[in-house]
Amino acid sequence: MRHTACMIRQWVFLIGLLVLTGCAAAPQPQPAGNSQDVILEAPEAQVRAAFVRVLTNGGYEVERGAQDDSAIRTDYREEIGIYNWLYRTQFGVNRSKVAVTLTPEGETATRVTVQVWYEGKSGEWMPLTGSWVPYDAALPQSAANTIRLVKNELGLL
User: Fold this and answer.
1) Which helix (H) or strand (E) holds 31?
2) Per CATH, is 31-154 categorized as 3.30.530.50?
3) Angle between helices 44-57 and 143-154 (to 10 degrees)
4) Upper half-sphere CA count for residue 20 (Cβ side, 13 Å)
């Protein structure tokens, strides 16, 4: 009887140790993202306004910083209306967010760096239990497409 109780404790300890080591996995690296750098022949104020319009029309909520702030950031793109929190946390299979850096290159030109983070769910039961991992951005959310839409908004195409 003592021998059986000792073996049960050893097995419980071993299973607990295995579970603990499985839960102590290395942290996921931040996604490198999809980025593009370009110079647009338009003043910074016009470029900033065009980016805000394009990102808002694309379903992103733009975080407005100070007027002299050289960055435009968004939260994750709105997918399905008021239940976005549920989509992003449980049932969603992909999500994206954008960061734009604007640097004046004189009076009539602006250097623009657009970075898009695109993530998808991984795992066998991906909608419910999968974790978010970086993927290559889908074409509609890519940095190149965002710049194309801004050029079109500015009338540079």
Assistant:
1) none
2) yes
3) 120
4) 6
List phi, psi (to 5°) of 77.
-65, 140
CA distances from 85 to 80, 95, 96, 132, 142 (A): 10, 12, 14, 14, 23
Report the predicted TM-score, pTM, of the whole model to 2 decimal places: 0.69
Q: Following CA atoms 136, 140, 143, 147 in sequence, which dihedral angle do they give, to the nearest 10 degrees?
A: 170
Specify which residues 121 forms β-bridges with: 132
Q: What residue type is assigned to position 156 of the chain?
A: L
Amino acid at 122: S
pLDDT tens by residue, 89-127: 656 667 889 999 999 998 999 999 999 998 877 765 555
Q: What are phi and psi of 15, to 5 degrees?
A: -65, -45
